Amino acid sequence: AGYALLAVRPTEEVQLLLETSLPAKKKKVLLGVGDPKIGAAIQEELGYPCQTGGVVAELLRGIRLHFHSLIKGLTAQAASKAQLGLGHSYSRAKVKFNVNRVDNMIIQSISLLDQLDKDINTFSMRVREWYGYHFPELIKIVSDNYTYCRLAKLIGNRKELSEESLEALEEVVMDSAKAQAILDASRSSMGMDISPIDLINIESFSSRVISLSEYRKGLQEYLRSKMNQVAPSLSALIGEVVGARLISHAGSLTNLAKYPASTVQILGAEKALFRALKTRGNTPKYGLIFHSTFIGRAAAKNKGRISRYLANKCTIASRIDCFSGGAAGASPLG
């Protein structure tokens, strides 16, 4: 029953019921149907004229209210259970209906990726500030947050660094000159001394940031593989991350495919658009697609033109991914 409701067409049981219950001359019958789509399907396939809304809705409401008294042997409790079962069946069918186009996984992944970026950046700044009291020179030598956290965990107390630690430092920074600079800086550092308990807390927090960074890398790989399954054309055109952000902002791949190119072009810049309309200023030329390499490489005077062209191609790519059975043979770039 759940699948039949999703398919929006009369089942064999419904067809048999109508053919046996209604007169052969179909023009003399006016069938009241609650759902307009099902009514249109019955009229198209079986030829019975259907009416929806108005009086029909009131009649159906009355039938639902007194249904258990109209059918012999049916109790109110049994009717309630049947309705609940149908609701569960419909919901289960709807979830299964979307199993091949799991763009909701992409939406969750890109949202988590953005949140992780913010959290890792905040936590890394905290590690830099915290460990910087003990070894301030390290901040200037190492700019990458992930590498800095690994070094903070590896070095610990800077006074314990020696020539024997040089190989381990090189393994982390991948640069012998930089490793030597860290060793030299540790010998003449202006940082304060640190107690063992403080050092344990810093190392523990650094480990958490390192594990978050490594999880983020794994999540990005998962997002890449998922985008190549669900939206390969869009991924090939503007990349997995920008494509995932477009899908997330639209709500689903189907919604994105239904948008015109002009909407895709400014997707993500709604505030700027409404502000421009309110003040009668210039409307934005691009939204989320600005992060694409095509617009980044374009000259300032050509950015608007390239964004419009790219939005057209994104629309084509998303429609290919959404409505075609498999991956497209031709590139959306034409």
Automatic annotation (TrEMBL):
One GO MF term attached to the UniProt entry: snoRNA binding
GO CC annotation, single: box C/D methylation guide snoRNP complex
InterPro entries in alphabetical order: Nop56/Nop58, Nop_C, Nop_dom, Nop_dom_sf, NOSIC
Role of this protein: Involved in the early to middle stages of 60S ribosomal subunit biogenesis. Required for the biogenesis of box C/D snoRNAs such U3, U8 and U14 snoRNAs. Part of the small subunit (SSU) processome, first precursor of the small eukaryotic ribosomal subunit. During the assembly of the SSU processome in the nucleolus, many ribosome biogenesis factors, an RNA chaperone and ribosomal proteins associate with the nascent pre-rRNA and work in concert to generate RNA folding, modifications, rearrangements and cleavage as well as targeted degradation of pre-ribosomal RNA by the RNA exosome.
Gene Ontology biological-process annotations: ribosome biogenesis
UniProt-listed SUPFAM superfamilies: Nop domain (SSF89124)
Subunit details: Part of a large pre-ribosomal ribonucleoprotein (RNP) complex, that consists of at least 62 ribosomal proteins, 45 nonribosomal proteins and both pre-rRNA and mature rRNA species. Within this complex directly interacts with TCOF1 in an RNA-independent manner. Core component of box C/D small nucleolar ribonucleoprotein (snoRNP) particles; the core proteins SNU13, NOP56, NOP58 and FBL or FBLL1 assemble stepwise onto the snoRNA. Interacts with NOP1 and NOP58. Interacts with NUFIP1, RUVBL1 and RUVBL2; RUVBL1:RUVBL2 seem to bridge the association of NOP56 with NUFIP1.
Protein name in the entry: Nucleolar protein 56
Pfam families noted in UniProt: Nop
Domain Nop positions: 230-334
Record's keyword annotation contains Plastid: no
Subcellular location: Nucleus, Nucleolus
Keywords attached to this entry: Nucleus, Ribosome biogenesis
Family in the record: Belongs to the NOP5/NOP56 family.
